[in-house]
Design goal:
With about 575 residues, the protein is an alpha/beta fold. Helices cover about 40% and strands about 20% of the residues. Among the domains are: about 55-240, inorganic pyrophosphatase (n-terminal core); about 355-450, Diaminopimelate Epimerase, Chain A, domain 1 (Roll); about 460-575, Beta Barrel (OB fold (Dihydrolipoamide Acetyltransferase, E2P)), CATH 2.40.50.
Length: about 575
Amino acid sequence: MSHWIYHTPPGDVAEMLESALSIHSAIAEILAKQGIASIEAAENHLHPKLAHLADPFLISSVDASVERLIRAISSNERIAILGDYDVDGITSTTLLVNVLRALGADPKYYVPRRLEEGYGMSFTAVERVLADGPFSLFIALDCGTNSIAETHALTERGVDVIIIDHHRSREPAPTDCILVNPHVHDTDENGSKWRAFCTVGLVFKVCHALLKRLRAQGNANANAIILRESLDLVALGTVADLVPLTGENRLLTNHGLRQLRQSTRAGLCALKKVSGILDGAQILPADVSFRLGPRINASGRLADALLPVEMLLCDDPEKCTQIATTLNEINRERQEIERRVTVEALAQLENLASSHPHGLVAYGEWHPGVVGIVAGKLCRHFNRPCIVLGSEVTLAKGSGRSIPHVNLVDALQPCADILNSWGGHPMAVGVAIESALVPELRQRFDASVASILNNNPLPEEQLRISAWLDNEHISEGFLDQLELLHPFGEGNPEPVFGIADITLTESPVRFGENNYRFQITLDSWRRMGVVAWRKANNMPPKDIALNLAVKLGWNYYNGRRYPQAELLDWRPADED
């Protein structure tokens, strides 16, 4: 069982919001705890509008990138776009190619071949792009911030470079290019609002700025583009890349998920179908994280990451269906490989956990395309930062995932001298190291994480209760108001509600693989289903008063909706 934490909201803000906006007290409490202290801020949070977007030119280097793009479009220059092979890179590439095509340009697009060329803007990937040249403008998306030598090699050949990226720099960033990266340039207080963006969010801002400038110049093509229709791509990349769903990220994702639901983009329609998402069905961040995103990512992990770009750019439904079916098959293969690697890596780390109490590194003869997913699972299992490395000739290559208390970029900095390459952001990094040095990395990574935590034990797993509810107050109106807080995700977690003094009249029923369900009484005539996933080894008893920690929402099924709760934890009421 987790340690439950509950704090009352600050001051009388919740009461003021409840009264002024006629919202449920629990909704007002959640808003107050998020620091929303005014009626205007609360209205904007509950009803986000695209009109609330800030001027894109406020981001450093956006103006310069727009001017360079306009010059390339007007002069019919040859443009090459290299985007990373994950969902963020794929959606960034698709969005920029779509907009440039609509403006009359004909950019060529490329994605690194993961096993042959490694991550991002490597020399081998750049040389492959240039073999299709000559190009006068090279644009790197979701990579390039740390590609100083590669950028210099391009500019030495007379190629201008634009880099749009959200990864953190490990050393001084390249200066002989136009770099749009708020982590590098937007370091003042105003810049903090941009640093939450992933690359597709930054590409959207650049495209927004580009269209504003061209519309002001009377460009007919720019006037014909409806940029909000690209928000389906922005939502995909933003949710999949685990950046905070706060500020403009939340606003763009809120509208993007709606656009994704109604999207007529042939590639997305095909992808939704093979992912089991019905036409017109509501799409939540979980659908991106566990259905759509993995199928896009699978191609880059095991095959050719260009496939999903071609699918998203394609207007032919039949061809899109063929590609989506292929992606679905690749994803099944990925799942099988991932299951095997997870079992082997878990067994290895169980033996290391006691001697490495703060940070763990697993290494084996594993496919490097799945180790990031496995690292995430092991990180959650052990509640500590984990790096999982696969073998690639003499190198060990892989990914790390972290817990909220540990910034992985900071944790790896003391290990930099033994790493061949590394980079990423606080919660996820990519790493390459000589295989012979893996034992040393294990020791140094564990020591580095311990130092970040001041040698304290890793924090106990905590369950934060957002608000306590009386069971009779769980109504249709409350669940409708709760939906206004969507989308939930990284940095904007789904609320967890405490419900006190619930007595089960019947024992829970097991189903599936280690799951169970039961019902609770809301009032004299209403009951609500509760489901617990992978928790059947700890089922609550009947006939005693219980406190439940749950997530609440509508369950949409066959065109109807039903109130449903997901049980996260329980305890006897007399223990609180």
